[in-house]
Design a protein that fits this description.
single chain, 167 residues
Length: 167
Amino acid sequence: MQWFRLRPTFEIQLDVDRSEAMRRIQTHYDSLGPINSMFLHGEYGEFHLPSVEHRLWSPHLSFYVHQQDENGLIRGRFAPRLEVWTFVWVVYLAMTFSAFFGLALAYSQWTLGGSAWGCWIAVVALVVIATLYAIANVGQQLSSDQMNTLRDRLDVFLRDAQIEVRE
């Protein structure tokens, strides 16, 4: 995994077109009955880990089935659970807001001839953003085993749905 990719993605080339792949996927999903570790709606699906396996940075795997030329293509993406991802973005937005207004305050203070202590607000906000980004990357690395588990579940599901994958 690369350091600067917060939400790793991948593509799987299929030997059948999108409509046939979706028919097989839906048929296999329906045959499994209700399961909590997978969600399927149209050409979108998700694989989740059981709650007992959750860690702070535990991922989920979402995928879309697309058409590319004559064959289908699955685009998958790993991302943190929704509640974690929402928290991360709220902190990013709050710190960006703080940095912007800290710089605006510092500029106002500077133009009035005072001490531009507002710069410190911006610096602290940028440090928080960088720290959160680094923590997210460390969390992603610590959860790489769970990403492998979810990818294996997708591969097994596709195999069981009798969908051939082009290498």
